[in-house]
Amino acid sequence: MKIGFVSLGCSKNLVDTEVMLKILADHGYEITPDDTEADIIVVNTCGFIQSAKEEAIENILDVAWLKKNRSLRGIIATGCLVERYREEIFTEMPEVDALLGTGSYHKIAEAVEAVARGEKYSSFEDKEKAPLGGERVLTTPDYTAYLKVAEGCDNRCTYCAIPLIRGGMRSRKMEDIVQEAKELESLGVKELNLIAQDTSRYGLDIYGKYMLPELIRQITKETGIPWIRLLYLYPDKITDELIAEIRDNDRVCKYIDLPIQHISDKVLSAMNRHGDSAMIRDAVARIRAAIPDATLRTTAIVGFPGETEEDFTELCEFVKEAEFDRFGAFTYSPEEGTAAAEFADQIDEQVKQDRYDTLMQVQLAVSEKKLAAAVGKKIEVLCEGYDAAAGVHFGRSRADAPDVDGKVYFTAPKKIRAGRFVEIEVTEAMDYDLFGEWVSTR
Hints:
Blueprint: E1 2-7, H1 11-26, E2 30-31, E3 40-45, H2 50-69, E4 74-79, H3 80-84, H4 89-92, E5 98-100, H5 108-116, E6 121-123, E7 144-148, E8 150-151, H6 162-166, E9 170-171, H7 174-186, E10 191-195, H8 204-207, H9 212-222, E11 227-230, H10 240-248, E12 252-257, H11 265-271, H12 277-290, E13 295-302, H13 309-322, E14 326-331, H14 349-372, E15 378-387, E16 392-397, E17 408-411, E18 421-430, E19 433-441
Parallel strand pairs: 1-2, 1-3, 3-4, 4-5, 5-6, 7-10, 10-11, 11-12, 12-13, 13-14, 17-19
Antiparallel strand pairs: 8-9, 15-16, 15-18, 16-17, 18-19
């Protein structure tokens, strides 16, 4: 039997997909990238915000067309949307044959077997007791990988459904993470991206203190992976020890992903974010003082219930002032089961969109200024491929995380294989991307 996969949502969801791929491969199933060839297709869904839910439903319906018009025998839906709407999916989407919640990924082989027999199947085991980690089949290019260090979240932000979907935070044992890092290195991984819902909180639940700095040291000691990138570091957990480790460890990218979500104290309090605007400003200041060349990335939510024009203006002014190197914004999405969905003073959708557009224009000016400062400099780039139509190679610098940041495009006298490190001299900046010329291959 041939199994196809559709993986939606975040990098953490992608890791779950890769674990399921490995389980099925070990059971002798053939994985196919061509949906029209598949006997069964697994759709690993996201259910974080409304747009993600809509995307998941659209993908399931697209796959259902294959079931009706081609040789597809069954559809298995897994992941966050399934966990949230377990009671409705079979009723609302009868095309789906099996459901796996976020605590049941390890049951994927049983689900496939049941669907192959023509049976309906569902499993929703306790997400707080589900296995952490597991062997994977990498779906990322062989030079880069995500490494999940924890599952779930304890922060309880009022807008966020993650604790409902994934449960409380559970850190993986350090020795298991380090062993996986070693295995990834043996597969050729040169960029390791550490992820969790709150990576900076790693270890608190099992070791009684923040252990991310020690985890970084152990991965550095046990592997030779040249780029180690840290994603999802919350401002209230940016300790001096963590800053020092990022500063002093040459293999850790000086890239700090610091989701602030807002700067207005009133909005931060309503969001139940840990810390206030002073704490955010202090974290940014300490990072910039210790690591002047650090790349700072953040995200913000606009249109949160009760956000006034004054609150929004304060956010815009802070984005100008802080000059984040990388920035993403979202319009607030009211999610069932979260406290904020019941708040009064919900903001009109058009107002949310207008504020989003305004904020991104503010950041565009910041980004153009930041990238223009790179012109004339030489930077290290991880080559990701060649665009034959444009006649240029492309890749990312240490300042660019996969999937969310810009690219570095460059010309070279000969073809460079993806996964090689090259030195580039930057000749031009445009919006969120850089252009340059090859200097050397490392």
